Amino acid sequence: MKLMEYQGKDLFRRVGIPTPRGTYATTADAVSAFIASNPGSWVLKSQVMMGGRGKAGGIKFADDAAQGGTLAKELIGKVLKNIQNPDGEEVKSLLVEEKVDIESEAYVSITIDRATKKPVIMVTSQGGMDVEEVAASHPDAIAYYWIDPAAGYSPFMARQLAFAAKLPAGYHKAFPKIVGALYDLFMNYGANLVEINPLVLTKSGAVIASDAKVDLDDNGLYKHPDIAEWNKQSPADEDQAAAVAIGLGMSNYAKLDGTIGVIANGAGLGMGTMDAIRTAGGAAANFLDIGGGAQAELVKKSYALVVSDPKVKAMFINIFGGITRGDQVAKGIVEALSGNDLRKVPLVVRLTGTNAKEGLEILAKAGFIPVETMDEGAARAVALANGAK
Amino acid sequence: MKAQREPSRLRTERSSVAIFLDKNSKVIVQGITGREGLFHTGRMLGYGTNIVGGVTPGKGGTKIESGQPVFNTVKDAVDATGATHSIIFVPPFAGADALWEAYAAGIKLAVCITEGIPAHDMMRVVATTPGMRIIGGNCPGLISPGKSLVGIMPGGIFKEGRIGMISRSGTLTYEIVDMLTRAGMGQSTCVGIGGDPIIGTTFVDCLRAFANDSETDAVVVSGEIGGSDEEDAAAFIKEHLPNKPCVAFIGGRSAPKGKRLGHAGAIISGNTGTPESKVAAFGAAGVPVAERPSEIPKLLADRMRSVPV
What is the pTM of this model? Predict the structure, then answer.
């Protein structure tokens, strides 16, 4: 679960990472009222998930209440777009923050390194830039430290990183404490990523997190029910919402660009089925993994979800039963096709593995002839999508 | 403060029982009276697995229908039966606890079927259980056909033989194994390593075991988009398996960037984890990559003819 900047900064403050003074606002009136009672120079930052919001015009500066109100009115409701996000994202709220006088900008993050199975701290003195760009252009400018999660964090790690990344001396005193707090946040909230970019050294010598990027592991959210609620306020991924609505895992459904609907059991087989369709000259309209041990009802609901996409011209249901039982899948297919409530598309079924015999009997009784292999099924589905009888 | 250890060193230090299990391996089931635990205990017994008991807190002293004793703790089970292997069917929030309990009781190899264990839990477990081999989580387990099944795989599709198989996925493994078996190519050991970002045993760990296994002539590596495990596997094969023919498959080659497809690990972000990078890595190691599972038996047969064993 990705957090917006204001949510990430909420967590920063909980662990003691300094953030700029400011307020969160959802209306232009609130922005002008805040500036009226707190005179000074303020930054209006659009709260969106997408990156590159500054270049997309999502960040403005205001010196008084009237200007703040006008700019806030412009921003709230605006759809920010850039090359990475051609569809854009609507601004629903703003973070109003004091303008800081920047002496220097650094970057620090902690993420899970899959290869070593450890948290890795990354630091560079080139803050304010996309870290992937820094990694590509100046790989030596990034310093890394892999933490043994059994032993935990100790301040020497940050000192070592600060020297290795050549952070200006002004950072040195505050840095170990900030990295320690960031590590606490990373571990205590089960984050995939915590990132401060930029970590600003101000002209007056303070070190302060000017931005916050936090991505929490969905599997660990049950430990933080209050934060799990935040997800409901931020723009939910439509595919994820659709999957959860019918009882699938959040990542078990994804809409794609093709015309052939896919239902499979298991993520690997789902991906393999998409690949087989491409090899046969077609393209999958979606990825859908019914998971392990799906009952008939879930199969029927999955069918409904796939055909709700008007692009779908044919469907390929590919099941290799392990935990999943073929008779349950077959029952679900027959139920989906029996009523008149669902759109019918030409359907190809491949069913093998656990209880395949029982499943095939159910399909045969309903007058349905399944294909035997994945390749055959993919080829047949592509032909049907192209109008074959 | 412990000094930082070289990560790859840590992995080599983990105990390696050639192919992880044999016919006599004593296995317990953690969560034996639960719905999935009980169902798969029956299937494993049917396959011939030496299941010596199970654990469900509060049900110690009872027996399941087929006669295996139930214990309150893993320690009780190990003390009474001498079990060395465990298979874990518990809810995600209890996954780390179950693995630590297995470790504390002296279990040598734990297969964790549970899906949805928080990545941080797994990270801490892996860092604190040196010497215990963990397979998974979110995996279909382990099978040495004709000997033992510690997992949820449908035993009937496997055939005893000399091909090693490693896979991140469950059902895609079945698809490939089915192709191999139909082509008359039996399997020595098949390991489903799991699709999560943090897993106990990686491709490289399995390849290391296969490299030293006299019962395995060739290896199929079935990977997926996302992460860099396949690239690591390719590099390892190049260096350490010059005489064992290998063939690879990569699931999700038609997936768009940034979409998470089921497996938490299967996401392409930036330029890491792309199918192109994985195909190139295997290519550089001289490992052919099948376009689809049905090509694997032929590629493997060709490879076995051309590589001097």
Answer: 0.87
